[in-house]
Amino acid sequence: HGGTSAAAPLGAGIFALALSVRPDLTWRDVQHVAVRAAVPVDTSDGDWADVAEGRRYNHKYGFGKMDAWRIVETAKTLDHVGRQTSIMCPRDEANTDIPVLSRQGAPNESATRTVEITAAQMAEAKMRRIEHVTVVVDMSHDFRGNVEIWLESPHGIRSQLATVRQHDNSNQGLTDWRFMSVKHWGEDPVGKWSLHVRNAYLPKHRGVLKAWQLTVYGESTEPDTRPHLPPTIGGGGAADTDKGREHDQLPPPAKPVEVDTGAMQKISALLVPLLLVLGSGMLSALGMLMYMRRRERKLADMRWTALDAIGDSTIEEEGFRPRPHPHGGGALTGRPEDDEDADVFEIAQADSGHVYSEPSGRAYKHTPTDSEVIRLADDDDDDRTKGTS
C-alpha cells in the first residue's frame, strides 16, 4: 500500500523524530528540511527535471522520497528560515478562447497569458526566494477533464497544474479553482510568468479562460521574530498564559498506562472453553464428512465390481434365501452354496436392472417387478436361476 493514507502517518512519524531533536522548528522549517533531505527515486523516469538550487523535481515523485536519517540529521543543523512573505499579482481578466482541436492527434495550441513580477515588487515584499506558488483559475469548458494547465516561470521551469482526466466530463469548468506548486522552490521570482491552457486530446470541445491570478510565497530577508518553541504545558485552558515565551524544558512524560491483567484473565477463561467446544465440533463434522465420502466411494466401487463380475459368477438356487424388506420392499439375503463358512449378505431393493455384488465377488441382478433374482453366468447358453423376493 503506497497511497496517501499510508504516506501521511509515515511522514508524521519521521517529522516527529526530527522534532524530538529540534522541538523549536516551525512548520516552514520542517518544509525546508523535507526539501533539502529528499532523495530522488526511479531516476530513469522521464519526468525528472532540473530545477533551482541544483535539485531535481518530478511531477509524480516531487523532490523524492523521505529518508528518516537524512531528515533528522538535516534538522539538527538547520538555521531558522525567515518569516513568510508573498507577492500577489493583479488578477488578469483574460477572456481568451481555448483553441479547439480540429481532430484527435492534431497539434495542440494553448491559450497563453503572461504576468510580470518586478524587482521593485520583490524588494517591497523583502523576498529572498520562492517556496511555493498558487494560481487561481476561472474557466468555462464543456469537458473539463480535457484541459491541461501549465505554469512557466521566468527561468523556463514548467509545472503542470492540471492533467488530463478522462472521466471528468463536467461542463461546469473551473470557478476560481486554486492550484499550488512547489516545483519553483528556490527560484528568483522576478520576470514574466506564463499560464498555458490547452485542450489535450479530444477534438471539438470548447472553453474560455476567463481570468487567473498568480501569488508567489517565499522566505523573507527579515528573520522570523516569533517564538519558535511550543507553549509549555500548564494547567490548560486560560491558566496557560505564557504562549510560548517560556520553555525551559520539554513537558514531563505522561504517566504510563496500566493494563488490567485481571480482566484479560477473565476473558481468557471464557474464551478457552468456547474455542475447545468449537474446535471439537468442527473436528466431529469433518470426521463425519470424511466417513460419508468414503462410504459413497465404497458403494461406487461395489457397483463397478458387479459390472466387472457379470458372466463370471454362479450360484445355486438352494444357496439363496429371500427375506422381506423392513420398509415394505423386497430384499435378498444369501450365502453361496459351495461355501458354508461365508458370511450371509444382503441385497437391498433397487430399481429394476441394477446390478449388485456380494462380498465373495459374485454378482446378482434384482428385478423387483417379477421378484426374481437372476444369476449372471458367463457360459454360452446363459443359464439363469430364479428365486423369490
From TrEMBL:
Residues 220-256, 315-389 are annotated as: Disordered. The chain crosses the membrane at residues 270-292. Residues 81-222 form the P/Homo B domain. The gene is KEX2_2. It comes from Coemansia pectinata. Its EC number is 3.4.21.61. It is an enzyme of class 3 (hydrolase). Coiled coil: none annotated. This is Pheromone processing endoprotease. One of its GO terms (cellular component) is Golgi membrane. One of its GO terms (molecular function) is serine-type endopeptidase activity. One of its GO terms (biological process) is protein processing. The keyword Transit peptide does not apply. Belongs to the peptidase S8 family. Residues 1-20 form the signal peptide. Residues 240-249, 367-389 have a biased composition (Basic and acidic residues). Keywords: Hydrolase, Membrane, Protease, Serine protease, Signal, Transmembrane, Transmembrane helix.
